[in-house]
Amino acid sequence: MDILDQVLQGREFSASELARLYEYDIFTLGQAANALREKKYGKKVFFNMNRHINPTNICADVCKFCAFSASRKNPNPYEMTIDEIIAQTIASHKNGAKEVHIVSAHSPNYSYEWYMTCFAEVKRAVPQIHLKAMTAAEVDYLDRKFGVGYQKVLEDMARAGVDSMPGGGAEIFDEKVRRHICSGKVSSSRWLEIHTHWHSIGKMSNATMLFGHIESREHRLDHMLRLANAQCDSQIVESKNGGFNAFIPLLYQRDNNYLNVQTPPSGQEIIKTIAIARIVLTNIPHIKAYWATLGTNVALLAQEFGADDMDGTIELESIQSAAGAKSKGGMSEEMIIHHIKDAGFTPVERDSLYNELRVC
């Protein structure tokens, strides 16, 4: 019996063994991954109505892959006020957004109270909005800066009205790679501890993986296995009471940063990575093909290879577009629905926790 069949039957393998899945042709992997996604979701492709808000690009940490933070590559620092964030949230909610996604640089200027006041005021201004905020890297930074413990940061976030956490800051869990691309940022073990504690207080989060830079295939599989184990540790599978909602493979963007990767991964490598994620991550419900990094066409193709979600309207995307992605202006609801239908799928608007709101 070959390794793909054994994985599909539930046998466990090491990361180096699972990296052999890349040796299969793309159609074999696609057939296996698509069968798994269709068993769960049929021809549904999920999207949501959301708005990204990035309060500042002034960052105390320096990551070589980042083009967003204010630096020699991006000499345009800015900081938003709480009132500005609230105004954007209100305007987006009036335009139909049901989620506001607040992720920022590691600001040396904002106080601890600033963050908690911001979240509480956003929820007070728009109680109906789902507030997704603070990557584990930001939580770790607040812990390091103010010495309060990441558990207190998370619990204060929950009290302030944060509903779920995004999956950013994971990058690649291998520490040797992390030392090269994001030295000084949250460690892989601490990233996982932070999400596990968030899950323990009944909250959901996402998990990302930045790929297509200096990492190996084995590094990607090691990353996925650590996430699968963390999900098992939380004893959460397809629950709305704490755990990972979705895995999001983020394609590295090559412009305006210091990592200097000359050759991007091929289209086959990208699609195989998404298919393998669906095959390996059986206990994480959703695989998101994030159109902001993959581009619309690849994100749609990925729905045939295990993915079941594209993210949402975004409205204004600043982090990936700073590195060359064509995502700055977001995408209209009408265009997302059109693209999904044109690709032969059924568009389903979801909320932030993947409850289905309407079939389009």
From TrEMBL:
Xref: InterPro entries: Aldolase_TIM, CofH/MnqC-like_C, F420, FO_synthase_su2, MqnE, rSAM, rSAM_sf
Keyword set includes Ribosomal protein: no
Cofactor note: Binds 1 [4Fe-4S] cluster. The cluster is coordinated with 3 cysteines and an exchangeable S-adenosyl-L-methionine.
SUPFAM superfamilies, per the entry: Radical SAM enzymes
Binding-site residues, S-adenosyl-L-methionine: 65, 171
UniProt xrefs under PANTHER family: AMINODEOXYFUTALOSINE SYNTHASE (PTHR43076:SF7), FO SYNTHASE (COFH) (PTHR43076)
Name listed for the protein in its UniProt record: Aminodeoxyfutalosine synthase
Organism: Helicobacter canis NCTC 12740
